[in-house]
Amino acid sequence: MKKIGFIGLGIMGKPMAMNLIKAGYSLIVYDIKREAVKEVVATGAKEGKSSKDVAAQSEVVITMLPNSPDVKEAVLGKNGVLEGAKAGLILVDMSSIAPMVSKEVATEVEKKGVEMLDAPVSGGEPKAKDATLSIMVGGKKEVFEQVEGILKVMGSSAVLVGDIGSGNITKLANQIIVALNIAAMSEAMVMATKAGVDPEKVFQAIRGGLAGSNVLNAKVPLVLEGNFKPGFRIELHIKDLANALDTAHSVGVPVPLTSGVMEIMQALKVDGKGGNDHGGIVQFYEKLAKAEVRHQK
Ligand code: NAD
Predict the structure, then answer these.
(1) What is the 185 CA–ligand 1 centroid distance (Å)?
(2) Where are the domains of the chain?
(3) How far does the centroid of ligand 1 lie from the alpha carbon of residue 63, in Å?
């Protein structure tokens, strides 16, 4: 079994690392937040002193960090993965970042004989916990085959979609679909509620039809409770939509609906709600309409 380094133990990284430990892998872990490291070490991982230290003791390094600059810092920066890496190391970046940055980082690490895959995920915290993430992978087939078993410990599917960067392009497509679905759900549920129909009954009535979706099933119960604890923070979804707009425009694809939802998320951020779960998009509509989609007593 390959020795695995894991860097970035946040909402997603922590349960993913714990699932690898449960599956019998020996893990060395690092996060700039000491408490996060302690929690995973308590379940059987070894503590790394830095990303460099983690890389020096691993055959495969997984990163699960917020954004492109964080991945650059942890991999190419001082005391980063590249400083500790030996030729032959496989770097699997599972963060959702700009596809161009995946390509840039891969080019840099290749100079030292390190192979890289971009392997972002979909499914959020619940699926990270029960190891049923959908993993979309970009990179070389022969590298993918070496870590496919590791990825399948964390997810129910791991699909090689193309060359390096393709994983993150696929993730951007995923994020457009999720954002637009949440906005559609919000618009519809606020209308139904203010028009006088119990939103819980609306959900029960439509979930089995064509409007039914994973988004509806995951988010409506939380909205009904007024629970906007993340989950997936609006500010992280803003990061993904910014990357989606850049990528779409750079290849000549207008994305009017994505732009619209981006502005809704920007308004929520200005309103102090950037740290809420993206299900909190409903709050934008609730404020406009002066009606809340909640359980009725
Ligand atoms: P998070 O903010 O909870 O966790 C990120 C962790 O990285 C934090 O613990 C932070 O301390 C650590 N970190 C930041 N910079 C670091 C560095 N230089 N070195 C070491 N550690 C560092 O974020 P998250 O929700 O776990 O998301 C991680 C990635 O997964 C993001 O790209 C996000 O878009 C993506 N994602 C999240 C979800 C979700 O539902 N939360 C779902 C799918 C994909």
Answers:
(1) 26
(2) 4-163, 169-289
(3) 9
pTM exceeds 0.85: yes
Assigned fold of 4-163: Rossmann fold (3.40.50)
Cβ atoms of 44 and 25 within 8 Å: the answer is no
What kind and span of H or E run contains 286?
helix 282-289
| Sequence-ordered strand ranges (E) for the chain | 4-7, 27-30, 46-47, 60-63, 90-93, 115-118, 121-122, 133-138, 155-162
Active-site residue, selected from the candidate residues 52, 127, 171, 273: 171
| Residue type present at position 4 | I
For the packed helices 199-206 and 214-225, what is the interaxial angle rounded to 10 degrees?
170
Tell me the pLDDT band of 297, cut-offs 50, 70 and 90. confident
What's the average model confidence in pLDDT over 19-42? 98
Q: Give the Å distance between the CA of 46 and the centre of ligand 1.
A: 20
71 in contact with ligand 1, CB cutoff 6 A: no
Length of the chain in terms of residues written: 297
8 Å CB contact between 233 and 274? yes
15 lines ligand 1 (CB under 6 A): no
Q: Give the model confidence (pLDDT) of 172-219 as tens digits.
A: 999 999 999 999 999 999 999 999 999 999 999 999 999 999 999 999
Strands 46-47 and 4-7 come out as: unpaired
Per CATH, the number for 169-289 is: 1.10.1040.10
Q: Do domains 4-163 and 169-289 have the same CATH topology?
A: no
171 included as an active-site residue: yes
